[in-house]
Specification:
With 322 residues, the protein is α+β, with helices and mostly antiparallel strands. It is 44% helix and 13% strand. The chain is built from eleven helices and ten strands. It has helices spanning 9-28, 67-83, 124-139, 142-147, 158-174, 188-193, 236-246, 248-257, 262-284, 292-302, 316-319; strands spanning 41-43, 52-55, 59-63, 94-101, 104-110, 115-116, 202-204, 213-215, 221-224, 231-233. The protein has a five-stranded antiparallel sheet, sandwiched between helices. A hairpin with an 8-residue loop joins β1 (41-43) and β2 (52-55).
């Protein structure tokens, strides 16, 4: 089996120069300036393997490192076009795409201006942007998404996750990282009550992490990146992702504005809380690679106390929601 090539700065420069020359020829009808160095290129620091590069000030080049990622990238390009009319925030647009090596794809995307949710707090108006995102994803036709190759994902068992989190909390307690008593409020009956409901599958971004939310300095959510992991599944997963990225309070307020009821909101809250405990324990056991400060930040955000969870006596119709 042939080893895939490793992207280098020279690889990126050659590809960008070719794209610039091709664009010049299309727009002017003549050959582009030969030998031009083109725009500055530099790797995105968070990108493993140098597969994502800044190109000048206005574009991002993403290189698929293997054939499996190439398949996902081709699907992502089509999915972004399907999603764009339904959401109020920017979705990156590909200005050029093709293969940078035989069987390995690339896309040159417009850069959405702004920072990340790790750099800027989301304002109240930004929460309304997130509500529009969640509501828009619910409106994307599932059949069209499935026709593009978006898979269906079964909802996770909250009870199984709860048991894993209880065990992880005990490991964290021994390291003086977490009080396991905080999980006592989440009981087996509570997990059963928050089970995913039938026929609630929608398009789920499934990676609403802080680095995928483009946030301006005034707290508005200007765009959403990273659509390659999207599935048709449990909308509570995106509520959980927002809890990790912007805090439980903001996530639940956004989901409520989007029309979700108490059950999916609380389900998302506890998915996020259990995930943060499990991932931090795994990291302390050297089974993860996420930086500890990031995991601690996510734990803090997910475990914010919110008013909704203080209500304990739900009628069945109170728990319903889209």
């Amino acid at each position: 089996m042939t080893q895939p090539p490793t992207p280098t700065a020279d690889t990126v420069r050659r590809l960008v120069r070719a794209l610039l020359k091709e664009g010049e020829e299309r727009t002017t009808g003549r050959n582009g300036p030969g030998g031009t160095a083109g725009p500055d290129v530099r790797p995105v620091a968070e990108s493993a393997g140098h597969s994502t590069w800044w190109v000048g000030a206005h574009h991002v080049l993403r290189l698929a490192p293997d054939r499996e990622t190439s398949v996902l990238q081709r699907r992502e390009l089509r999915l972004r076009d399907l999603v764009r009319p339904h959401v109020p925030v920017a979705v990156p647009t590909s200005v050029a795409h093709g293969e940078w090596s035989p069987g390995l794809t690339y896309t040159l995307d417009t850069r959405v201006p702004g920072g990340t949710a790790e750099e800027h707090d989301v304002s109240a108006v930004g929460e309304a942007d997130l509500a529009g995102l969640l509501g828009g994803l619910r409106e994307v036709p599932a059949r069209q998404a499935e026709a593009l190759g978006v898979r269906r994902a079964a909802p996770r068992s909250l009870e199984a996750l709860r048991r894993m989190a209880v065990a992880a909390a005990e490991r964290l307690a021994r390291a003086d990282e977490f009080d396991p008593a905080r999980l006592h409020q989440f009981t087996r009956p509570g997990a059963a009550q928050l089970a995913a409901q039938p026929a609630t599958a929608v398009l789920v971004h499934h990676a609403l992490r802080g680095e995928h939310l483009v946030v301006s300095a005034d707290g508005r959510v200007r765009g959403v990146l990273g659509w390659g992991e999207a599935v048709l599944g449990d909308p509570a997963e995106d509520i959980a992702g927002l809890a990790l990225a912007v805090g439980s309070g903001a996530a639940v307020r956004a989901a409520t504005l989007a029309g979700y009821g108490a059950r999916p909101c609380l389900r998302g809250l506890w998915l996020a809380r259990c995930d943060t405990v499990i991932r931090l324990a795994d990291r302390l056991d050297d089974q993860g690679t996420d930086p500890l400060p990031l995991l601690h930040d996510r734990l803090r955000r997910a475990w914010e106390a919110i008013l909704l969870e203080r209500v304990t006596d739900f009628r069945e119709d109170d728990m319903e929601g889209p």
